[in-house]
Model the fold of this input.
Amino acid sequence: MDKKRILIVDDEAGVTRMLKMYLEGTQAYEVRTENQGKRALAAAREFRPHMVLLDVVMPDMDGASVAAQMTADVSLKDTPVVFLTALVTNKEAGGGRNIGGRPFIAKPVDPEKIIEFIETHVQN
Amino acid sequence: MKVWNRLSKTVSLREAATAIFGLSALLPLLLLVAFLSRHNLLLKLEAQLSILAALVLAVFGFVALRRMVDRISSLVRALEAPTATDATGSAGEIPIPGLGAVAEIGQLRDFLARLLVDIRSSTERLEDLVFKIGTLNETVELAARIPELQDLLALVLERTMRAVRGTVGSIMLLDRDRQKLRIVAARGVTDSVLADVELRVGSGIAGRVAQHGDPILVENIESDPRFAKDHHPAYGGGSFICMPIRVADRIIGVINLARREHGMPGLGGASSFTPTDLQFLNALMTYVAYALDNARLLEEALQSAKQLREVVQDQELRLTVAQQQMVQAEKLESVGRLAAGVAHEVKNPLMILLTGIKYLSKRLPTEDDSVKQVLEDMSDAVERADKVIRGLLDLSAPRELDMKLEDLNPIVEQSLLLVKHDLDRGQINAIKKLEDNLPPVTLDSFKIQQVLVNLFTNAIHAMPEGGMLTVKTYRRPPGGGGADDPLADVPTPEGAVGVEVDDTGTGIPGDKLKKIFDPFFTTKPTGKGTGLGLSISRQLVEMQGGVMDIRNRAEGGVRATILFKLQEGGK
Done:
């Protein structure tokens, strides 16, 4: 079975490295990481991921702007994007809310939950 | 000349009369005898008879003159010690032997007696005037140096009574707002007699004087009809005077003086106040009025200053409280801003840690329990840190309220359901006492649910060995709560709806009770609470116009009370 391609965009290198290590360790995923928001679009066009995990607060370009670029791109507009965010209150973490219409996962999160999410939203 | 001067000082009237008689009567006779003798007429019988007759007349005249002169002398001596009869002239007839009564002498005697009386009376009046002027100067000078009203009043009254020889006196000051005169100083009567004396302006003698500004003199208290109604036995009989005390054209009070019927020693029997007394009082009151007015103004100013000081102290306290509240609010705002920044910086490392822990959990051998335990503890630590950060973010989160008219009972029921698992696990019995037909209140049901869950959770943690959780809802009538209502001092003119959460735990230590709403303050063991729950809960309640109270119960445990005021119309 082909591995699912996951693009992780986060300015924190440790986060992207750890997640890549964990997801690829399951042998089910191929992971590409990007630490700059403004390079995310090019990376997505090239990698054509099944899902994008997108940090919200990034210094060069925030996650919302990156998501908007993807929506505007014909080849990427249907690619599921999920926000990984630190700025979540207890109420918001209770679920049932979106950021700009897109689902989010609050950091820090058990990577198994990320896998659960990927499996729910990405079909082979 | 010196001899003449000495002679004229020591010669008496008798000696002077004798000398004058000798010159005016005897000398011509001697000249006549000399003339007749010269012209040899002395031997004639007619001449001798004439000389003899002249001599007899001269002797007779001399004796009469001497007697008259002696009477005049004795009169002069008598005038030095006058009697009543001297003054009236009833013993004015002075008989001269051979001449009968000499009218001019009697008249002279009467005149001199009256003159003496007048002089004595004038002297007395003059002395009295000098005394009054002295008193006036002294009183005015002292009055200028005494700022305290009571001392000044006592001085003025004492000096005034002394100057006019009053036996009873009082000073009344005008309360302009109430238009009443009140006694502020009195002498000659007991305090109990005058303690309650208060006169309306226009009524009574003093009231009339205060109204019109003209003094009133009553010569006989007992017979004067003006005094009849107001006659107070304290004044006795005698004369009475009431004088206005005036500053410019403003009457500030009156002075009342009475001189009892039998007068005072040294008055010579006079008991009535005189026009001089009136003039003196007028002059004295004119000067003293300013001093009295100033003293009263000073007293009022001191009183106002005291009240102002109290107001300022109260305002300073309020300001201090407000400043502290502001500092607290600023702290919270700073914490909120900080929280947002910290959250972002801390959560990424936490994410790395958690991902790493989970990775190691999968990769490391699972037979070693200690390794498993370590990894589990590390995972718990990350979760705890995450909770703290979320609590901080709650502080900084925008407070958007979804306010609607809601029934409180379903919110309570829902909140209890959310903690049901913890209640069962902790073997805690939940008792509901929800009043029926509670009026709905305007609130954000989700946020109140959060608050109630926080209170229930705290209560559950306070009863680790099990216990009882009682939740009660009630309606508080308009006006306020009963004696045992912890929020009794919160005014609720339209009434309120309240919820009480009681537990049977150990309660909150007394020294910590004041701090329970402070952010990060917690009584729970390390790791069991962030300390943000009550701080946020109270904020949420207050944002919706409610009030929250937490205190220990007398029977043990804690009671948390939330009150939502009803608006006009019962909502």
Summary: Chain A has a mean pLDDT of 85. The CA atoms of residues 83 and 104 of chain A lie 4 Å apart. The domain at 4-121 of chain A is CATH 3.40.50.2300 (Rossmann fold).
